[in-house]
Amino acid sequence: MAPAVLKSQSKMLVIGASGGSMITTGLASTLINHLWFGKSLKEAIKTPVLFVDTENAVKFEPKFDNGVIKALEALGHNQKPADKFYNVVNAVEKKEGCIWAASDHRKLGEAAGY
């Protein structure tokens, strides 16, 4: 797992992932989609990811943007079909007095609390 706590003046984000070598990919993808592109935690976690394995082959999660796949293929990137993606990201965010939680659908997770 790879827990992280990000804190600013107005919010706090606690995020973590599991999935061996795919942890970094899952966390980076989620953080980029949430913090830079403004997606909700749920949408950021749900966004399909790509992974470059130890053989330098690119693997795409199902439903990944086909335009990106074709563009990388045209550039000569070695691609392999991805059987399964094992990265699982979970996060809790406190923003403007509200707490939001999201759990990864890849592991059939669901955020719950009191």
Automatic annotation (TrEMBL):
It comes from the Eukaryota. Signal peptide: none annotated. Keywords: Membrane, Transmembrane, Transmembrane helix. The keyword Iron does not apply. InterPro entries: GGT_peptidase, GGT_ssub_C, Ntn_hydrolases_N. Coiled coil: none annotated. Pfam families: G_glu_transpept. The chain crosses the membrane at residues 12-36. Belongs to the gamma-glutamyltransferase family. PANTHER family: PTHR45027:SF1, PUTATIVE GLUTATHIONE HYDROLASE LIGHT CHAIN. This is Gamma-glutamyltransferase 5. It comes from Characodon lateralis.
